[in-house]
Structures are given as structure tokens and as C-alpha cells.
Amino acid sequence: MKDRTLVQVALYAAIFAVLGLLPRFDLPFAAGVPITAQSMGAMLAGVMLGAWRGALAMVLLLFVVALGAPLLAGGRGGLGVFFTPSVGFIFGWIAVAFVAGWIMQALRRAPVFPAALIAAVIGGIVVMYAFGIAGMALVGGLTVMDATKACLIFIPGDAIKAVLVALIAQTVARGLPEALLSRNA
Amino acid sequence: MISLYLPQRTWLHAVPAGWKLLALALISLIAAPLDSLPFMAALMVAVLALYVSLGKAALAQIALLRPLWPLFLILLALHGWNGDILLGIVVLARILAMVLLANAVTMTTRMDAMMDAVEPLLGPLAWVGVAPRAVALAVALMIRLIPLLFALWEALNDSWRARTGKRGGWRLLAPFCIQTLRLSHHTAEALAARGGAPRRGRR
């Protein structure tokens, strides 16, 4: 592993943590519904770093959380979070970053905004909820149908986050093109 | 940052981290497939007794579960809707007991002790070309980066406020990403100048 890769992986793991520590954003176009920015971190890691580095960043984050750091939104952390019904989402972040990064790399020739939007929606919604619902069903003792019902309320917030991630990717591509590592690999 | 670690020593602090992790893993393996109410009630009582034995500070940490309540209510409601409220109670007791038990391990184990306990498990990573010591470096780097990034965010927020009088919120994310990437270039250069990250077969 190169030094730069190591630093970038640590950086996106840290960005994910910082997104959870920031005060909640009030999004104007979400009618003032506060959302935590944290799950954006997984989409961002994938879209910015590409599949492998993005997934590694999430693995590093979960490792540090398991060691006992309270880095998840609301100061949650430690081994306890791996026993909650949201554990599917938590492990899902690894897959989210990988899939979003993989799509971003596959669509390297496409314009940034649509490519990042597709990556964020498929990674951050389809993949994340597949993992999240599976975790909810297993830990909560629910059928998949019921687990889906319990998770659905979060989807609008995640759709907004996916759009934000795409906007950010586009802005970054303009401001510092080499920062979009998923494109110049 | 709120630390989950309890600074005052309890008897559980003296137990080696490896044993605590092993016990937690074993109990979770036993409890996961079991849907028996008496067992879950016993587990719950045992976990609460553990917390009482750890003292007041540990009991106060139970408040960490507060954000989970809405989810617990939804779970109970769904089970009640399906006419199996008993299963709902069993499931809830299992989640509560396991989360509290896992938190007890985190509360009484320092992060470096935890790292030492899991380091032998990182050995196989060398086969795919990742030195276990590079993992330790990545962990340290990430933890060091968090306050730096936080300060960077605050600086961006301040300049946004100076221009507009409002909080930046999500608009700061793109400049934030650009700035952090710059920061990471410098960090990588500094790391390379000091001999680089640990590699396989080199100490």
C-alpha cells in the first residue's frame, strides 16, 4: 500500500467521523427536516476514492469504532453499536463505499454529476438498504417485509444525501480535478 | 469528544481485554439463536447485576441507549401487529442485554489495550500485502485527523458567516473536501519524507 493511499483512507474515515460530530444540517429543500450527514460519508468515500480505497476507509472507521471510539452520529460507538438492529447499515457502509466507487470508476467517461448521482443512489440507497433491512430482520426478529417498513422512513433523507454527494463531486471535479481519485486511477 | 471509557477503575478493568472480547463473542453466539423468554430475562438480570457491580458511573452510561428507544418502540409495535408481542419482548431483551454487555467491555477497556488484543488477528493481513503495523498507523492518523478536520470545518464556517451572516451547513462540504485532500497530500509527503508507512517484511 502506498503512503498516499494510506493517508487518503485515513482521511475519508476521519471525514466520516467529523460528519457525525457536526451539528445537524437543516436542508432548505427538505422542509426543515434535520438529517444527520453521516451516511453521506460512506457515499463520499466511494465516489471520491473509488471502490477499494473507499471500502478500506469504511473498514478502518468501523475498526476504530469497535476499539471504543464514539465516532458515530450522536456520540455512539464502542462494541455496543454492533449489537443494535442498525448493524446492517453499519456494515453496509463498507459495501456502499465499494459499490459507489466501482460505479464511479465504471462511468469514468461520463460527466461527473450524473455518474456520481447514479453511484450514490445505487450504493447509498439500494445497497445500503439491502444490508440495513437484512440486519433489521435478523437482529429484530422481523420478516423482511416488516423490516422494510421499519426502514422506509429514512429513504427520503438518503435520497437528498445522494443528490448532495453528486453536487459535491461535481464541485470538487471543477475545483481540484485530481482530488476525484476514482477518476484518475 | 465524549469518551465511552470509564476512568475510575473497576474489577472489570483488571480483566485482560482478550478475555472480555472472547466472553462477549461467546455470549452473543449463545444468545443469538435462542428465543426463550426465561433465558433472556436471566441474561438481562445478569447484565444489570454486572452494571451494579461496576458502580454508579457505569449505571449512568445506560443513558447511552436513549437514542435507540424510537427504534425499540417500532420493533415492539411491528411484533405486536403480527400478534406475537412475546417474541418482540424476547428480541428486545436480547438487543438490550447484548448492547449493554458490549458497552461494558468498551467502558472498561482502553483503546490501546483493545488494539493490542486484536493485533494478533491482523497477522493474516500480511498475506494480502498490508502490514499489521500499517493498520496501527492508519488508526493513529485517522484519530489525529479528526480534530484537524473539525478545526478546518470551523474555519470554513467562520468565513462563510463573515460573507453571508448565516451558517454554511451543507454548502461547505465541497470546499471542505478540496481542502482536506490538500491536507492529505501534505500529510502523505511528510510521511514519505520520514521513511513512509510500514511495509510487509520491513520493520
From TrEMBL, chain A:
<feature type="transmembrane region" description="Helical">
    <location>
        <begin position="55"/>
        <end position="73"/>
    </location>
</feature>
<dbReference type="Pfam" id="PF02632">
    <property type="entry name" value="BioY"/>
</dbReference>
<feature type="transmembrane region" description="Helical">
    <location>
        <begin position="151"/>
        <end position="173"/>
    </location>
</feature>
<dbReference type="GO" id="GO:0005886">
    <property type="term" value="C:plasma membrane"/>
</dbReference>
<keyword id="KW-1133">Transmembrane helix</keyword>
<keyword id="KW-0813">Transport</keyword>
<keyword id="KW-1003">Cell membrane</keyword>
<keyword id="KW-0812">Transmembrane</keyword>
<feature type="transmembrane region" description="Helical">
    <location>
        <begin position="80"/>
        <end position="103"/>
    </location>
</feature>
<dbReference type="GO" id="GO:0015225">
    <property type="term" value="F:biotin transmembrane transporter activity"/>
</dbReference>
<dbReference type="InterPro" id="IPR003784">
    <property type="entry name" value="BioY"/>
</dbReference>
<protein>
    <recommendedName>
        <fullName>Biotin transporter</fullName>
    </recommendedName>
</protein>
<comment type="similarity">
    <text>Belongs to the BioY family.</text>
</comment>
<feature type="transmembrane region" description="Helical">
    <location>
        <begin position="115"/>
        <end position="139"/>
    </location>
</feature>
<keyword id="KW-0472">Membrane</keyword>
